[in-house]
Structure formats: C-alpha cells, structure tokens
Amino acid sequence: MFYHVKELQYDAKPERPDPVYAKKLQEILGGQFGEITVMMQYLFQGFNCRAEKKYRDMILDIGTEEIAHVEMIATMIAQLLDGAPAKEQENAAKDPVVEAVLGGMNPQHVIVSGLGATPTDSAGYPWNSRYTISSGNLLADFRANLNAESQGRLQVVRLYESTNDKGVRDMLSFLIARDTMHQNQWMAAIEELEQNQKAIVPSTFPQDLEKQEVSYSFYNFSEGTESEEGSWAHGKSMDGQGEFEYIAKPEAMGQIPELNPSPNYIHGTPKPGQMPPGTESAKYEQNMEQGPGPVN
C-alpha cells in the first residue's frame, strides 16, 4: 500500500522560468537512467523478491523514495515552464550554437502537456519499460542498479554544471547526494551477497558444466597488445576460482559454417539443380510438394 504526503521530499523551487532547461531536465525524469526508470526497476524488483525479507524491504524503501524524486523533478519542470511561450525562448537563444543544439523549448510542453512534465527523455522519446531490469537474481539486479545510479548521478552532475539557477542547483544537489547514498547502498548489498555466494552470476550453475579451459582466458581481438597490461590478463581471477591468462593470437575453435539449402517454398537463392527457371505451373506445384532438397 502506498500513500501520498503533500509535501515534497525536498524543495523544487527555481529562481526563474527556463523552458529550454526544462527540456534538458526531462532526461533525468524520463530518460534511460532517469527517475522513472529506477522507480519502476526497484519497485518491480521488490514486488518480485523471493529472498530474505531485509532485501525486499530495502528495495521497496528506495523504490518508494524514487517516486518522490519523480514528483520533485516533475514539479521543477512545471515551474520552469511558467509563463514562457516557445517563441520567447527561441528568441532568447541568441547564440547560434546554443540554438542549434537545444532547438529552443520542447513544443510538446505546450501542445501536449499544457506546461507540464512528460514521461519522456530530453529528445521527446517516450519512457520505455525495457529500460528496467528485474531478473529475480539479486546479485545481477543490484549490479544493474549500481550502474543505473552511476549513470544517473553523472547526468545530474552534468545538468548541475549547465545552469546557474540557485533553486535548480539546490534541488539537484539533493539528488546528487541521494545518488551518492544509493551507489554506496548497492555496493554494500553486492558485497554482502558476494560473501555468501560466488561472484559470478548465477552462482548456482555447476562450473564443471562450462568449458572451463576458456573460463579465464583474455582474448586479444584487436590490433596491439596494450590490454595485456591490465589486471584482467594475469593473476588470480576475481572470483578466486582460476588464473587469468592472456591469449595474444586467439585461434578459431569452430567449424566453417555451411548451411543446407532452404526448402522450395522459402524461395531463397536456388542452387544448381534446385529449381530450373521457366517451369510450367503444374510442374512447379509438383516440385513444391516435394519439400526441401533439389528438384529433379
């Protein structure tokens, strides 16, 4: 059960309207790593959690907080859109480079949402549930969560640097701090899980069923050997189960692929003798009934 508290989690009060910046702010609302994504990702991970209760509770705690962040950013976008028609903002973009990049105000903020936020990214692309990850494997999911928070914090910091509005920066400063906590949270949870299971996902699959002779080989599949200098090329593997080795010139281990001809009814490219051209319809029907293989 959810309930709504009328006050925002933190202030969302810009100093002045700025519809062009409102367009940019859409990215951390409805973009791939925006607040709608992490909100839905964490909530579904929590709803579907079959592990210890502490993990379900923790995931739903942060998922519910992300609902509050969606509300904060939507409120900020709406205020940035106050009293500023698109044409005024386009005139304000005096710098031709800025105008070319930003393209002025998002016209959908007027036409579609009536000066309100939309569930889209900064380019107007609709938010997509395919951005979310909820696999049922907590270690895999928590690593995805850490990536989402890392990318999200990076984008918020870039937005912080691109405005001098003290009110906007104040709200973004809060979100940056919460992303700091969330990255630390997921790292702590990942470390805890790794202490109780293998670091490789899934840890429940017997390793003797995989081709273990290539489990810890780093293949040099590009020109140059600089990659050999990395810790991933020599020494103990990160899961503690093997030793990294560097393969400077990997050799092919498979066969030369050769596919069978397609059946007549597929109408692919015929091989010699498969379907002679200019065949009358009666003969054609007879050949089609024969199915795959050459036609006599």
Automatic annotation (TrEMBL):
Its cofactor is Mn(2+); Ca(2+). SUPFAM superfamilies: Ferritin-like (SSF47240). Keywords: Calcium, Manganese, Metal-binding. GO terms for molecular function: metal ion binding. The keyword Calcium applies. CDD domains: Mn_catalase. Mn(2+) 2 binds at E66. Residues 255-296 are annotated as: Disordered. InterPro entries: Ferritin-like, Ferritin-like_SF, Mn_catalase, Mn_catalase_C, Mn_catalase_dom. Ca(2+) binds at D57, D61, N220, S222, G224. Mn(2+) 1 binds at E35, H69, E149, H182. It comes from the Bacteria. This is Mn-containing catalase. It comes from Salinibacillus kushneri.
